[in-house]
Design goal:
This protein has 12 helices and 2 strands. The protein is mainly alpha-helical. Among the domains are: 40 residues, no CATH class; 46 residues, no CATH class; 50 residues, no CATH class; 57 residues, no CATH class. It is flat and about 105 Å long.
């Protein structure tokens, strides 16, 4: 019995090897699959399809699927535009500008603001012809709540028509203060003087006025006393180190120049890139531009 089992195992192994040889030969005899070199489906710059839109907006950084957009181009009428006139007429009554006649002050960005036409159409029909929003009574109520109403008690007048205060509280404050009292008082200003960040502008390379920024003088005063008079933050050595990391040094590699004052790059990597590419090489190169603009797709068709 054991001998039979061994013979069966040997037979199975031989059959398995024989089958694998036949399978490999069959795979080798199969013709190679054709390489799909079609440019369909390659991301195309969205500007190629600007002719579909009433207001073409240049979008050099936007790429779309050419397969989907070519289908759209082929299925819509020749002179079709997005949005079409029917859609525009529907949205016209939803624009806030449509109801500007009932407001005292024109609506900012009214052409970009949309409202419910059923609600506002009903309001427009039910108010008197000369009615305005807000009406004079509402304006009188809010007048005493505007911050300007109490600006006389402040040393520096701050005007902001979007700020409203509690008139009961602020009227009480105004009535209890002496006639010529101002906020802040000279004493308070003197107390806060050392906390003004402008007191330490001399130690910075760039003098940036910051009247509304307050700092801890117990921290900054020791710093100011230990550094030399000509020391500046950042110091020239730090500025020089960061100068090499500005992307502007590598702008000649790009077709479109980028102003990158706030961008820092690894100069070691970019120097290697710059040395490795040909002198007249640009990113993106002409082949990439032809593909993404749809030029190669048109030529292939």
């Amino acid at each position: 019995m054991a001998r039979l089992r061994v013979l069966l195992m040997i037979l199975y192994e031989k059959i398995n090897r024989w089958w694998n040889k036949i399978w490999r030969r069959q795979k080798q005899s199969e013709p190679p699959q054709p390489v799909d070199d079609s440019l369909e489906g390659v991301p195309i710059n969205a500007d190629k399809y600007n002719s579909l839109f009433i207001t073409p907006i240049p979008s050099p950084d936007v790429f779309v699927c050419s397969i989907e957009w070519e289908k759209i181009i082929k299925t819509v009428p020749k002179n079709y535009k997005l949005p079409n006139s029917n859609t525009l007429s529907i949205f016209e009554t939803m624009k806030a500008d449509y109801y500007r006649s009932i407001f005292n002050t024109p609506i900012l960005n009214g052409s970009s603001l949309f409202v419910d036409p059923e609600t506002w159409g009903s309001i427009n029909k039910n108010i008197p012809g000369s009615y305005k929003i807000p009406n004079p009574l509402i304006e009188d109520i809010f007048k005493v709540m505007e911050d300007d109403y109490y600006s006389s008690i402040f040393l520096n007048r701050i005007s902001d028509d979007k700020v409203f205060v509690d008139s009961e509280i602020w009227q009480t404050i105004k009535d209890t203060l002496p006639l010529n009292y101002k906020i802040p008082t000279h004493l308070i200003e003197k107390i806060f003087e050392p906390f003004h960040s402008d007191s330490y502008n001399s130690i910075f390379l760039t003098d940036i006025p910051s009247p509304n920024v307050f700092i801890d003088p117990f921290v900054w005063e020791p710093i100011k006393t230990v550094i030399t008079q000509d020391f500046k933050i950042p110091n020239p050595l730090s500025v020089q180190l960061f100068e090499q990391m500005k992307p502007d040094h590598y702008n000649d590699l790009f077709l479109l120049q980028i102003d990158g004052e706030e961008i820092v790059v690894d100069s070691q990597i970019w120097e290697q890139v710059k040395e490795a590419v040909p002198a007249d090489y640009k990113v993106p190169n002409s082949l990439i531009l032809d593909i993404t603009s749809g030029k190669l797709l048109e030529e292939s068709n």
